[in-house]
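Write out this protein's structure.
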Amino acid sequence: MSGRDARFPAVQRYDRRAFIKMAGGAAGALIIGGWVPAVRAHPASGEHILLHPNPFIALSPDDGITVIVKHLEMGQGIETALATLVAEEMDARHEQIRTQFAPVDPMLYGNLLIGGQQVTIASTSLANSYLQYRHAGAIVRALLVSAAARRWKVPKGYITVSEGKVVSPDGLTSSFGELAAAASALELPVTVELKRPARYRHIGRRFRRLDTKPKTSGTAMYAADLRLEDMLVAVVARPPRFGAKIAHYDDHRARTVDGVVDVVPIPSGVAVVAQNTWSAIKARSLLSIAWDETEAETRSGPDVARYYAQLLEQGGTAIHDEGDVKSHTKAAQMTIQADFLFPFAQHCPMEPVCAVLQPEGEHAKLWIGSQVPEIDQASVAGVLGLDAQCVEVITVYAGGSFGRRAACDGHVAVEAAHIVKALRLSQPLKLLWTREDDIQGGYYRPMYLHRVTAALDRKGGIQAWHHSVVGQTVHDLPNLGSGEESRWRETFKACTELPYAIPDLRVEFRGAECPIPVLPMRSGAHGHCAYVIESFIDDLAYTAREDPVAYRRRILTRDPRYLRVLDLVAARTRWDGPVRNGRYRGVALHRTRGTYVAMIAEVDFPSEGSLRVTRVSCAVDCGTVVNPEIVRAQIESGVGFGLNLALRGGITLVGGRVPQSTMRDLQPLRMGEMPPVDVHIVQSDAPPTGVGEAAVPTTAPAVANAIFAGTGIRIRSLPFSATRLIRR
């Protein structure tokens, strides 16, 4: 029974009434949703949201438990994690659990850590939902116990629940489904008691992933897989230079392709609509378009880097200023300065972005795997001239994202809406972005330039730290906080909350003007900020002639959890012991969204100028662990993602054009290049935090520091492939 619930088709539309009917349609069903307050206005921006009831569970007469998942499942395992929490508090069996993605309703399904917006972003899913879903499960369990107590006329305290069965003191048993109808008639308990850790049966243990079977059997539904009756397919010819506009176009040849239905200009380019994908792509290649590039980006990568360097010299806005950095730097025994450059980088999810839009008169349905469905809903409604509530968003699986599906302009759904509107379509339309579209179409991690200046005392201690960042403005957490400076401070928290003992700290940010569309990437600003900080700390340790781990231990004074993961990984890798001949190790340490990771990477150099990462070891403190297998998988995934970015990640810019267009051009990390990854999890009873991004920030600096140990080369411009690794 476990897995996606085929009986509740994804095309079902819910309002609150329909939702209750859906789950309670069969006689005797119980849904935790009847206790949701009557319709309220969406919380005003800035309103403090602590916790409010949510309809997360539907219990059916057949004993099935449907967990309503409010976050997008894009491979990170949140679907299984939330189901685990419900199963734990209900004492349910894995086989009873199925899942369904929630409709768009921020009042019920908003992310309480992101201002109540319905988004899946910044590793907040589990931290936000941990108590919500446990409480929901505990409430259902309490109702079932009360119903059984009435049926058997025994005190509730004598009734137990185990393995999906309710058991009386004299051995009578009843399934959840048998009690569902009676339980649905009871008043909701005012309070419930959550399980203590000693009674956990699922939390902290293996709970098989619910998405493994549908994904390996081909039954999992992605937007790209969707086939609807009379559905048309569209692709868009977009300008090769960012910021260009259509001057004029000739579609005569394109319209000769069999299956082409129409060609129409939309704000982002020229859309070709056809009866199938092949016809649409073939016809697009036959378009003749002249672009107005008056306002287009025409610079190459080095030109943009020089522009950034000019901005860096001009200084930025202080987003953190503690102590007197200027005076103490001037009076210091020694100062060290370094610049770090990061290229534009493409997210490259396995499934390129895609959406299916079906107009239905005064309503519309949108199928999409989106991290920001609330924004997509409003964006489509705006284009079509509908109320947002008239656009039903049906969330489907996403084939990876890494931030690509968190576009706050909803541009994929918006393009589909513009095509539907321009052609006055009454049938469904699938908008496809091909791999080439996605690689060349923007929405990259921005280019960044960092400069760090540190003032040291005679013992190598850090007296002052001045950190400047230049780049396009992109915020890790959309619409959170008021004022640009406040949002920059939140985005660059990695730079302002250093774990090391630094009396004087100043952090500046300078926004850069550039028409290239950008998005945060997996781990957000933590990715490039951690590289700068941990590479530079390694430099300071070298300057102080101290072992890199010992140096970090000496200046780690602000949070013992950093030291705990550092000591753990150092012990497990026997850092103080000898290293195999020809191999070198580097260390890095970082906290991402509340999760602490210490990492030691080992490398060798099979031949002059070549590099191989032979092993990566991580210690992770993510608080209470719900599913250790998912933690390990996400840490391994983060290492692979971070290693790919470090070695060959990034796109180039030549005259305003992106020359790369396929995976062959990007040369992503191959399986044979993936090193063994050891994951050591710190046992903790702290609240759980996310692990989807946690290993990304430490991977590149740990490897870079290992390269320095072996070659003496300090890499300050990524990717590593741009540096000749010749040992000194």
